[in-house]
Amino acid sequence: MLHSFLKAVGFSHVQDRRDLEQLLREVCSECDTRNAVRMENGHAFVEYIKEYAPGCGLIVCGEMDDTGFHRDYYFPYFKTDSISSYADLSIEKHGGKDSFAGICEDSRLGTSLIFYLQNAAKYQREHRRNRLNDGNVSTSFMGLASEGKILFPVKKKPNQALLDREALTKRNRMITAARNGDQDAIESLTIEDMDAYSMISRRIMTEDVFTIVDTFFMPFGMECDHYQIMGEIQSYRRVKNPQTKEQIYQLQLLCNDMVMDVCINEADLLGDPDIGRRFKGNVWLQGCINFPEM
């Protein structure tokens, strides 16, 4: 089965099962990293990871037993060193295979963030040691984008960025307090949302919505880990998949005050990225849990 986000890491030429099988065999036979963890049935869960461009490539996962390796699934990945969140996590296994979904409760988003767990073998090993919620675990969020466009930044007053950050910090504190049952915080957030709705309703009559909203993070489509996002570009780089010669943009965004990185094929990006401009697009959200080294 062809993965719909293969093109994000430079494999838009893979169009049929024969090409895919050849590519996945290459990942297993020429992998850069192999991770394995012993399962309860005595077999091993194994990840084969091969990087095809800086920071991105393919991961093949499956089970190893006495008869050899049996591939279960694969997916394209994008990995960075950026830290996105230190909020509490919950991890749930997908029903049909040994892959996992994560749920992050970060107050900056105001909602639960669902992502596809990238480092499943590492998680299974550390989960047995009960290290998920020991207070030192962080999460990095990365998105593979199917399409996107570059927007100009919103024009602001010289001190507006500082005022926005202070207001966001205050709102995050109120959201945390509201989750803990603080009635005053709940009422303040309700009034604030009503004022925001009134302001937007008034301004939308004469302004474009993207001059009012400069960042957002919202579910997109039917799958729980797909989102439509818009964030300010903090840094970017253009890399090449040497095997396919396809160009890839890797963007670091500030989205709802959260740092996250996005990987997109140059052919799917409309506009030229630059620091300070905004990226808007549809992404498949992946998360990598960063466990402290022992």
- Look at the structure and give the mean pLDDT: 87
Distance between the termini: 38 Å
Uncertain regions spanning at least 5 consecutive residues: none
User: Pairing-aware structural class of the strands and helices?
Assistant: alpha+beta
- Helix residue percentage: 10-25%
Strand order, biggest sheet? 8-12-11-10-14
Helix segment count?
4
User: Which sheet architecture does the biggest sheet show?
Assistant: 5 strands, mixed, barrel
Number of strands: 14
Order of helices and strands: HEEEEEEEHEHHEEEEEE
Shape, please?
A: globular
Taking all Cα atoms into account, the compactness measure Rg is: 21 Å
Beta-strand share of residues: 35-45%
Notable characteristics:
single chain; 14 strands; 5-stranded mixed barrel; 294 residues; alpha+beta
Brief summary of the model shown:
By secondary structure, the chain is α+β, with helices and mostly antiparallel strands.
Describe the protein.
With 294 residues, the chain is of the alpha+beta class. The chain is built from 4 helices and 14 strands. The strands form 2 sheets. The chain has a 5-stranded mixed barrel. It has a 4-stranded antiparallel beta sheet with strand order 1-2-3-4, with helices on both faces. α3 crosses α4. The longest helix is centred in the middle third of the chain and has 21 residues. The radius of gyration is 21 Å and the shape is globular. The model has no long low-confidence stretch (mean pLDDT 87).
